[in-house]
Amino acid sequence: MMTTLWLTTCRTWSNLPDNLTLLVQQLEEQGVKVIVAPWQDWQQADWVLPLCAWDYASHSHAFRAWLMRLAEKGTGVFNPLELVRWNMSKDYLLDLAKVVEVIPTIVLDAPNPEAFLALIHQKSWSEVVLKPLIGQSGKAVTKWHAMQQTALPDFSCYSSGLIVQPYIQEIEQYGETSMVFFNGKFSHAVKRQPPVGEWRANSAYGVEVFAITPSAVALASANQVLQSLPVMPMYARVDGTDILEQGHFLLNELEVIEPALYLHTATEATAQFVQAILNKIRKG
């Protein structure tokens, strides 16, 4: 009987991106029937790969319920559900800060002007970056400068909670290094370089993406992150700023839910990912 794999998109962006067409083609050549549909539209499938669930942060309660339904139905998943739930909320960075160098991160579960200003005063941070505790694709990621802005941030954007970090100016120069791993083995890496005058390394802000060879320091940090997890994810992307002149790597994110894997930037990447998927299916 043919194995079915539900490659999820989302209702906000229901179409599969062109750079995953080859992935679908190679899986079907190996006898896997691929169903492409939003995660919100339930499909009967043996396995699910939420690689394009790019709106879950806007529907986090529904997404958690969907994960629970997968567990109840016994649907096969490629990264453990407990790891996915942990990775949804960016306070996972507090755990990883015990392992590698992470951009200093403070969580405000119930952000308000008093708590925010008290934090800025306590840390003596003049320029900070604000991110939703549960967020994707740079949405509601803003920069706030204590000396230049009189208006406080709009805290209504952060109903899930707020991450506050000092602004790391080096990202303007070095961009963000993204390293992709399959079963803990390094596959390929890209640099996401913001345009001049921009600092957010997301596709929504005109970032340039190109293949690179990561530094030994960046690769070692990424391996430390993955080895620290309770279980090795089948696919993962580790992002950070590789400050080459200072010889250190600042972790920005670990993504094990729906990372852009940039398979089109490396010749063997799609084949490697297909093989990892097939191995997982065969092991059950």
Report on this structure.
The chain has 284 residues and is α+β, with helices and mostly antiparallel strands. The protein folds into three domains: 3-77; 92-101 and 170-267, D-amino Acid Aminotransferase, Chain A, domain 1, CATH 3.30.470.20; 106-166, Dna Ligase, domain 1 (2-Layer Sandwich). 28% of the residues lie in helices and 26% in strands. The chain is built from eight helices and 13 strands. A five-stranded antiparallel beta sheet has the order 11-10-9-12-13. Strands 2-1-3-4 form a four-stranded parallel beta sheet, with helices on one face. A four-stranded antiparallel beta sheet has the order 5-8-6-7, with helices on one face. Strand 3, helix 2 (60-73) and strand 4 form a beta-alpha-beta unit. The radius of gyration is 19 Å and the shape is globular. It starts with a strand and ends with a helix. The model has no long low-confidence stretch (mean pLDDT 94).
Features:
Dna Ligase, domain 1, 4-stranded parallel sheet, D-amino Acid Aminotransferase, Chain A, domain 1, 8 helices, 284 residues, 5-stranded antiparallel sheet, 3 domains, alpha+beta
| Main sheet: strands, sense, barrel | 5 strands, antiparallel
Q: Averaged pLDDT, please?
A: 94
The beta-strand count equals: 13
Regions with little confidence, pLDDT below 50 for 5+ residues: none
- CATH topology category name of the largest domain: D-amino Acid Aminotransferase, Chain A, domain 1
**What's the order of the H and E elements?**
EHEEHEHHEHEEEHEEEHEEH
Question: Given the helix and strand composition, which structural class is it?
Answer: alpha+beta
CATH class of the largest domain equals: Alpha Beta
Beta-strand content bin:
25-35%
Helical residue percent? 25-40%
Which of globular, elongated, flat, extended, rod-shaped describes the shape? globular
**CATH homologous superfamily title of the largest domain:** ATP-grasp fold, B domain
Number of helices: 8
Q: Output the strand order for the largest sheet.
A: 11-10-9-12-13
Number of domains: 3
Oligomer: single chain
Indicate the CATH architecture of the largest domain.
2-Layer Sandwich
The value of Rg in angstroms is 19 Å
| Separation of the first and last Cα atoms | 15 Å
